[in-house]
Prior knowledge:
Blueprint: H1 3-20, H2 27-44, H3 48-54, E1 57-82, E2 85-112, H4 115-123, E3 126-128, E4 136-137, E5 155-166, E6 175-179
Parallel strand pairs: 4-5
Antiparallel strand pairs: 1-2, 2-5, 2-6, 3-6
Amino acid sequence: MTLKKTSLVFIAALTMFMSSMLHAEAAKVIDAKADVAIEKFKKLVKGGDVFLSKVKGYLVFPEVYKGGFIVGGEYGNGVLRVDGKSVAYYNIASASVGFQIGAQKTSYIFAFADQYALDSFRKSNGWEVGVDGSIAVVKWGQGIDVSSISFEKPIYAFVFDNKGLMANVSLEGTKFTKIQPDM
């Protein structure tokens, strides 16, 4: 099978996979999955619990599915928490073209260190990384304590709990859209 045919088959399969996920889960399901993801984050990231207590709010996407072969995409549902309480629900989606191959499931936490950034995000109809705001992806590990981050950037992203292999990880062009899941 030629590369072009293989790409077309993969794109069709990815489209069917992503479209089957386009329904929003119930709020209680998103909240329960977010609770598990936050606990994993606190165990994996030294100082994670202190860091989350210092930020103005954080957006948790407990299950983001990514797949790609030249053309790729990602999708997941999440919750915005302010003062530890769920205040709104969002989905995350992106599409990309370029060198990428594989599939993975991962978790994201986007932490708003600055009130203006949080307010801007909450007021927006749809928010896109690189267009509506920039995000500092935190590279943690080897004993780094994230509670010591000096909050020079307005938004920090953590990618964790990777399952699967993806040869490209980028947040550029990722879009967040507010959703109304079933309560």
